[in-house]
Structures are given as structure tokens and as C-alpha cells.
Amino acid sequence: MKAIVLDQFGSIDNLQLKEVPVPVAGAGELLIKIENAAVNPYDLKVIEVYKEQSGVSLPVIPGSELSGVVVATGEGVTKFKEGDAVCGNPGRFGGGFAQYITTHQDWMAKKPASLSFETAAAIPVASLIAWKALFDEGKLTAGQKVLIHGASGNVGGMAVQEAKQAGAYVIATGSGKNEQRVKALGADVFIDYTKQDFSTAVKEVDVVLDTVGGKMQTDSFKVLKEGGYLISLIEAPSKELATQYKVHAKVVYGGPNANRLEQILLDAAGGKIKAPVDRVFALSDAVAALKAVKQAHPSGKILLRP
Ligand SMILES: NC(=O)c1ccc[n+]([C@@H]2O[C@H](COP(=O)([O-])OP(=O)(O)OC[C@H]3O[C@@H](n4cnc5c(N)ncnc54)[C@H](OP(=O)(O)O)[C@@H]3O)[C@@H](O)[C@H]2O)c1
User: Fold this and answer.
1) How far is CA 161 from CA 1, 47, 59, 181, in A?
2) 125 ligand 1 Cβ < 6 A
3) Which of 171, 172, 168 has its CA nearest to residue 141?
4) Among residues 232, 180, 186, 179, which one has the least CA distance to residue 209?
5) Which residues form the Enoyl reductase (ER) domain (predicted)?
6) Going from the N-terminus, what domains does the chain have, and what CATH number goes with each?
7) pLDDT tens for residues 127-186?
8) Considering only CA atoms, which of 290, 292, 243, 296 is closest in space to residue 48?
């Protein structure tokens, strides 16, 4: 099969299109023919920033979010059969920038027939981490006020929709050109971070979702209510600031959750959740796709089509 292989950390230019063996489904695993793989900032970070510290061993095929069709099943598989359309996060780094992948049946969710493979590949990572951050960790409930940074991004856009549907009052940050798009997703207030300092415009927030880090994270302490939650997807917040402002603050990481994903996919199939796709690149153009993700101002998910 064709796959994009990384032999050396440091640069996305080290990626090469290669011919490699089709993997074999082990016990409990599915062999999936990939229809679309999503390209995420995490792929870039592992290749260029975390490198050896990521714990990923080389050579590796990046890509940890996909949709496709089950073409073979390993021993003991009970949840899926050949021909089933699925999507999800394979529960480890990598494997998605290829024509086929194996993954454990527990990490995949059934794709509703009315959702395209492109939309299905755009949903798992962003929707699951947004849900985990807002509700599992941030304890967000109806009537509370949430501030979502990077609301024009893939995770932020999912978070806006999930928070709004849960009955929260949603304040969103992003660049001005994205205001209408983010408001259409459900934001009550939009703050253009290129023009306005959110930390002087907002107060008494119950939950902050930080998808940006740095100063946006440290300034976020100032807008929280006592007892509020600052949940970062980027870096561990300062313990000293958390104590000073009397708030909960932590960094959280995502992973597969097939049961929750199936619910979110049904919401997407019913039109309650939108997962826009920015562009679809050929597998052989993976480096160009990663460059597009690196620009960090997408208007939806960047996908590959093997
Ligand atoms: N912890 C985890 O498990 C986990 C899971 C998923 C994602 N993440 C991380 O979360 C981050 C967002 O992921 P994503 O997929 O949503 O990325 P994305 O779709 O590329 O979105 C990036 C967002 O960041 C905003 N942005 C870019 N530069 C900015 C700046 N200088 N100041 C403020 N905002 C800025 C963009 O807003 P405008 O375009 O409107 O300027 C855009 O909304 C990434 O760093 C990713 O690695 C972590």
C-alpha cells in the first residue's frame, strides 16, 4: 500500500511517500481501508516539536484520525464486520496517512450512512477533546458562562457548538474575519483577539477552554469566577496563579471514546453538529496539507484522500 512515512524527526520535509506492506488485523482489530485521514496540529508537533520526547518510535506513518471501511477483522471482533463504515482515532499516534490501517475495534465508531466520509473524518478528535474539556473536566452546566479561545479552529468550533447545545452562554475568541462563522455555530459574543484584549472585556466566567496557550492562557485567570475551571489543551497552567485566583486549572489530553463519538456522529447526521472541511489533499500531497495546518488559521479540517 501507499503510505506517508517519517524516518527522521525534525521537519515535515522528511516525510516520504512509500510502498509498505498492508498491516494485518490482530486479535480484536479491524483492517480499515481509509477513505479520509485528518491532518491535525498534533501530527506537526510530534514531527517538529516533541520529536524523540513524544515516545513515538521511527519509522512511523503519522495521522491519528480517519474514516473508512472495514475490509477484514481479526480474531474475536464482535462489534464490526466487513463492509461497515467507521471513523475514529486509532488510540495511538499514527497510521492514518496511508491506504490501510489496523486499529482495535473498541476505538472505532459506526459512521451514520447520511454522513460523508469527509465529515466523519473531521469529527472525532475535535469533538471528543472539546467534550472532555468542557464537561468531564470543566464541569460546564446549563446557564454557566464559558470562554472558548480559538473558537474559529476545529476544536474551538466543536466546543462552541457543544457548549451552546448544553445551554451555556458562549463567549468566543478568534480573528475578526471568522466572527460570522463562529456566531453561526452558536457563540453569543465574539471577541477579535487581534483588536481587543479579552481579559478586560470579559468577567465572571465559569469555564475557560484554552486552545492557544501562552499569554492567552495566563490572562484567562483574570476572567474566571472564584471556583471556576481553566482547562488547557496546550500546556499545564501555573499552579501559583490557580492558587492566587482560587480556581481549578489543568491541562488535558484526548483519546478515543467510541460511545461518546457515536452520539456526536448521530448529532452531526441530524444536523445539530457541523464539522466543516477546509480542503482535501491527495495522500501524496501530505507535506502541503501539513503546511496548511501549520498556518493555524483554517476554516475547517484539512483532510487527506489516499
Ligand atoms: N490536548 C489535546 O489532546 C489536544 C487535542 C486536539 C487539539 N489540541 C491542540 O489544540 C490546538 C487547536 O487545535 P485545532 O485542531 O483546533 O487547531 P486549528 O483548527 O488549527 O485552530 C487554530 C485556532 O487558533 C487560533 N489562533 C491561531 N493563532 C493564534 C494566535 N496567535 N492567538 C490566538 N489564537 C490563534 C486560530 O484563530 P483565527 O484563525 O481565527 O485567528 C484558530 O481558531 C492545537 O495546538 C492542538 O495541538 C490538543
Assistant:
1) 38, 31, 38, 12
2) yes
3) 168
4) 232
5) 10-304
6) 2-123+275-305 (3.90.180.10), 126-251 (3.40.50.720)
7) 999 999 999 999 999 999 999 999 999 999 999 999 999 999 999 999 999 999 999 999
8) 290
